[in-house]
Design goal:
mainly alpha, 216 residues
Length: 216
């Protein structure tokens, strides 16, 4: 007897449908998290917003904290790919730039683009951290990885002998991390009404003045 042929459940169309469903859930979650806050948003509410079954949301993300974590990763990277920030072309462009001042100005450009995308979501995560252990761990990881990524840039500048006299890589990293911290963006852009252009120019000028050696 010839074996019975069965349809593959790993077809391209099925994968496309699954990806579209995942995107719809993430977009619905972002809208509700940013509008209502983490505590008031439920998995059932996200399912309703995305127009899918609650079971679909749980199967895709398991928990609300897992969904928020997945949403953060997608927003930080700018897509749903698995390539970490440290390997992204826009980050590697900064690290590999030979001119120290241009490095810092490219970093400011990238920081502006990322913050415009994730600032509101970061507020959700920070607000939820004190009341949810999983989100607290996510917030700690965000802080740690952000500091580490900024350190790589500082070490590249330092390797060129471009840090100002008396400034070591540890202190320079702390300065860059602080000036580039989302709290500063929140204060200047959301609270004081600066434009993203204003913030980028200020950040780039300030970090260059703080970190780089000047001739003469």
């Amino acid at each position: 007897m010839n074996p019975v042929k069965t349809r593959s459940y790993n077809s391209p169309r099925r994968r496309e449908q699954a990806a579209a469903t995942r995107t719809a859930i993430l977009e619905a979650a972002q809208q509700l998290f940013e509008r209502q806050g983490y505590a008031a948003t439920t998995m059932v509410g996200i399912a309703a917003e995305a127009e899918v079954a609650s079971k679909t949301v749980y199967l895709a993300f398991e928990t609300k904290s897992g969904l928020l974590r997945a949403l953060w990763n997608a927003q930080l990277r700018g897509d749903q790919g698995d390539v970490p920030v440290a390997e992204r072309q826009w980050y590697r462009e900064v690290v590999e730039e030979p001119d120290p001042e241009r490095q810092l100005r490219l970093n400011a450009r990238n920081a502006r683009a990322v913050k415009a995308r994730v600032a509101a979501l970061l507020e959700v995560i920070r607000s939820a951290a004190p009341v949810d252990e999983d989100i607290a761990a996510l917030w700690d990881r965000i802080q740690t990885e952000f500091h580490a990524n900024q350190r790589v840039i500082v070490e590249s500048v330092d390797a060129k002998g471009a840090l100002r006299p008396g400034l070591d890589a540890d202190r320079a990293t702390d300065i860059l991390w602080t000036l580039n911290h989302p709290d500063v963006w929140q204060l200047l852009v959301r609270e004081r009404g600066w434009t993203p252009d204003d913030w980028e120019q200020w950040f780039a000028d300030t970090v260059c003045a703080q970190l780089l050696a000047r001739d003469g």
